[in-house]
Design a protein that fits this description.
Layout lengths: L1 H27 L17 H13 L54 H21 L3 H30 L6 H20 L6 H24 L1 H28 L9 H6 L8 H18 L1
Helix pairs in contact: 3-7, 4-5, 4-6, 4-7, 6-7, 7-9
Cofactor: Fe cation
Membrane topology: Multi-pass membrane protein
Organism: Daucus carota (Wild carrot)
Amino acid sequence: MMMTRGTSRVARLTMGCRLISAVKGAAAEGEKFPVMGVRWRSSLTLGEKEEVNNKNSEDGGNKEVVASYWGIKGEEVKKEDGTPWKWNCFRPWETYQADLTIDLRKHHVPTTFLDKLAYWTVKSLRFPTDVFFQRRYGCRAMMLETVAAVPGMVGGMLLHCKSLRRFEHSGGWIKTLLDEAENERMHLMTFMEVSQPRWYERALVFTVQGVFFNAYFLAYLASPKLAHRVVGYLEEEAIHSYTEFLKELDKGTIENVPAPAIAIDYWRLPADSTLRDVVMVVRADEAHHRDVN
């Protein structure tokens, strides 16, 4: 037994040394290594990949760059017109056209104790947000989406575990909530192209997300109904914020810049769309999430 443990320890040390040597070797050759602070290959757009490939060619390298978390080269995806698809964060079959005819004024009047608790919790959270961001709606939207993408993932995760424990179907709710989380994340990816957050706003995201994730996790365990009511009222506030965003765009206070390419492809917008068109479809998404929750 003593010899077996000793041999196992030597083997682990040897493997560790080989791993460290591999990382150092990759760094010395200028390769990107998937560690903290470095982007994964699959998160790059097609243009960025071509830039990396060109750099490798100039350096005389003849290495195939893998575009997958699993070390498997992904299949080439094209648009309907035959042009290459340049996004790895979503695929053509995940795109859609938002329903702009959805009722934006719908409001769930709080009647029960849980409804009122959810409503006033959300209202109390709005005050510090108004004070901090004022009328910087681009940064405000970015912060809002970092929080709005949490509930769907938490709810989907807990329902997933519940389905596993009980050996029963979820009735489609797991996919619905995870799709909601992914949609909110795409909102964030879009607004990141419009406004660049300052360092203290990024730090605030860490703090708010850490607190909100754990609070929502506990709330969902205690009462899923309460948790969904909170999200519903959060979405009502989001609709209000994006409506104010549109007013500032119409007044010219905020420049109505061309829509980011990622938004045009994700929502199937016309090529000449602007930031106002993006805010319109995002607001429609929030109204849909309000009704679901």
